[in-house]
Amino acid sequence: MNFEGKVAVITGAGSGIGKGIARVCSEAGMKLVLAGYNSEPLQALSGELTNTETLCVPTDVSQLDQVEALATSTSERFGQVDFLFNNAGVGPTGRTQDTSMEDWRWTLSVNLWGPINGVQVFLPLMERQGFGHINSTASESGLYGTSHLAAYNVSKFGVVGLMQSLERDLRSANSPLSASVFCPSAIKSRILDSMRNRTPESVAKHQETEEARQFTAMIKPIIENGMDPKEAGRIVLKSIADGKFWIFSHPHVPDTAMAQAVAMVTDQTLTNL
């Protein structure tokens, strides 16, 4: 697949996986639309990618009108969009019984409604063009729900379902478009600091517990020592070029999903993770 001169829209581009994907797309010769909740990290990344034509568009992906504005800005600047990377995400921790309704709302609005809004807005543009690819970042948590991540798990399961439905619908229509889903394990990012992108009113309704604090402290060093985001970006772009739908950062992810599926079929039990 030739990426040279193609246009990529990347949400959550200001940090983590989104920044890694942006750097790899830049090296591949693509033009980039960098979208994120805050402008400053986008501008900093744009300044770093000196050999790439970039457009920075502050965007709250949970808001349909802002995603529509993102598409309008992209079309006005570049006239087309070849790749959409629905990557923006948040990661509050908490057991099912401890998750407040506001935590559910905020997590699903970004992690699930963000990709839904992206598909809803950008898919028609790509269909009119007759070409395009949509990739969404889910998580290993979208394949096997772990403890202390109730809202996050549900949102990422939804992303996996969305992308499976989209790819099968495109196939049934013999569409030239395609889709893929990225299910990473630990990637070095600021996912545990995502509360920074939350309104004070929403934060006030967050339900913090000692169990959640202990879980966050346990996984923090795992995230801090996770895969380099740029390596994750390389995996994503190469997998898209190879025509893969399922994209994994670590081999244990599909292995764990397979072990759960085997237990489900053989004795209908839920595996321990």
Question: Which keywords apply here?
Answer:
273 residues; 49% helix; seven-stranded parallel beta sheet; alpha/beta; single chain
Walk me through the structure.
- The longest helix is centred in the middle third of the chain and has 23 residues, at 150-172.
- By secondary structure, the protein is α/β, with parallel strands linked by helices.
- The protein is globular.
- Helix 3 packs parallel to helix 5 (113-129).
- The protein has helices spanning 16-27, 39-48, 64-78, 101-111, 113-129, 150-172, 200-203, 210-224, 229-241, 252-266, and strands spanning 7-11, 31-36, 54-58, 83-86, 133-137, 178-183, 246-248.
- Helix content is 49%, strand content 12%.
- Strands 3-2-1-4-5-6-7 form a 7-stranded parallel β-sheet, with helices on both faces.
Sheet with the most strands: spatial strand order = 3-2-1-4-5-6-7
Question: Structural class, from helix and strand content?
Answer: alpha/beta
Q: State the share of residues found in helices, binned by percent.
A: 40-55%
List low-pLDDT spans: none
Number of helices: 10
Number of beta strands: 7
What is the helix/strand order? EHEHEHEHHEHEHHHEH
Q: Average the pLDDT over all residues and give the rounded result.
A: 96
So what's the overall shape?
Answer: globular
Distance between the termini: 37 Å
Strand content: 5-15%
The largest sheet is: 7 strands, parallel
Kindly provide the radius of gyration, computed on alpha-carbon positions and rounded to a whole number of angstroms. 18 Å
